[in-house]
Design a protein that fits this description.
Length: 342
């Protein structure tokens, strides 16, 4: 091994599912010099070896525990209910962690991870990709600068039929955590709303379509002082995929996939398009930025883009939703209880 290779951070990519294949590995592949220091980890070794051959990674392993003493950092890309135990074990071994969202399923899990990071000195990063969208960052900057005045209402509708090319059945039913669109897509959208507000809002109401298993549609209403927030999520049908942030002095509207453009309307009703100048404009750009940041953190030259403690507010909201969940009224389904036969 050359001196250049020996100096590269040693990384374990734990979990070789769809997010590893479409997001993390292409971004790592931009750094050919580190591929010899990357190990793909998955109990399905055939899957790990296939991806390793495709992306030029030399090493595979079936159990991350075998590698902890020889790694500088790990990317945790396993099903959501495994994020906490695997990240926690890595943190306690002093290994830096970049974890997929959600970092944990409840606030206690987040606190446990943050405490482990503080005790070990290892960094704890979370992939909250939507915070990297230039338009979303502009919203945050304009809120913090007071351009909208005191906030009064935030709405975010995000939905489309589920078509993620999942490599396992962990998204649904007993093989996962029986938590669905709220914990998955909601981990991004609730995080954005909490980030824009700068605090954890109070839960006013939450409904979903669950009968005790994985929910595919979720509605939550929140309040933070004089500002209300409404979030609509769906894995069943296409929603507007738009957001609106309203304050006393104006509002900002945009599309969920419009990375670099939004519309600002002032208090007089005058509207104008705002385009950002950021160079990161596609998902490939965002994955590259995330991995570049992780590599810089491992080298000690940068701070994490999103640290573990920053998602405590959004995980708190999501946990409150699940603890108070109510099912939508479904008269077309419940009618059988009173129907007569014959």
């Amino acid at each position: 091994m050359s001196q250049k290779q020996a100096q590269q951070p040693r990384i374990g990519l734990i979990g070789c599912g769809a997010i590893a294949e479409s997001f993390h590995l292409p971004a790592l592949g931009r750094h050919s010099e580190i591929l010899s220091s990357v190990t793909l980890v998955d109990p399905d070794l055939d899957r790990a070896k296939a991806l390793a051959g495709r992306f030029g990674v030399e090493s595979t392993c079936g159990d991350y525990r075998e590698l902890l003493g020889a790694l500088d950092g790990v990317i945790v890309a396993v099903p959501a209910h495994l994020h906490l135990p695997i990240s926690l074990e890595c943190m306690r071994a002093g290994v830096h962690v970049l974890c997929e969202k959600p970092l944990a399923e409840n606030p206690d899990g987040v606190r446990e991870l943050v405490a482990a990071a503080e005790e070990s000195g290892a960094a704890l990063l979370v992939n909250q990709t939507r915070r990297l969208f230039p338009a979303h960052q502009q919203v945050k900057e304009r809120i913090d600068a007071g351009e909208l005045g005191p906030l009064r209402r935030i709405t975010y509708a995000m939905g489309e039929p589920f078509d993620w090319p999942a490599a396992t059945g962990g998204y649904f039913g007993a093989r996962g955590s029986c938590k669905g669109v709220l914990l998955d897509l909601g981990a991004h959208i609730v995080d954005l709303v909490c980030w824009w507000l700068g605090r954890e809002p109070e839960l006013v109401d939450y409904h979903d379509d669950s009968f005790g298993g994985t929910e595919a549609v979720a509605h939550l209403d929140l309040r933070a002082g004089d500002c209300t927030a409404s979030i609509r999520l769906s894995w069943l049908s296409k929603l507007g995929n738009t957001y609106c942030v309203e304050g006393e002095r104006g509002r900002i509207e945009g599309g969920a996939y419009e990375w670099g453009v939004m519309t600002f309307t002032d208090a007089s009703g005058h509207s104008r398009k705002i385009r950002t100048t950021a160079t990161h404009q596609t998902f490939d750009d965002f994955s590259a930025r995330l991995i570049d940041n992780f590599l810089d953190v491992l080298r000690g030259t940068a701070a994490p883009l999103v640290q573990g403690h920053e998602v405590l507010d959004s995980i708190g909201v999501i946990d409150a939703c699940y603890r108070s969940r109510k099912r939508f009224d479904m008269p077309w389904h419940d009618a059988w209880k009173t129907a007569r036969v014959g």
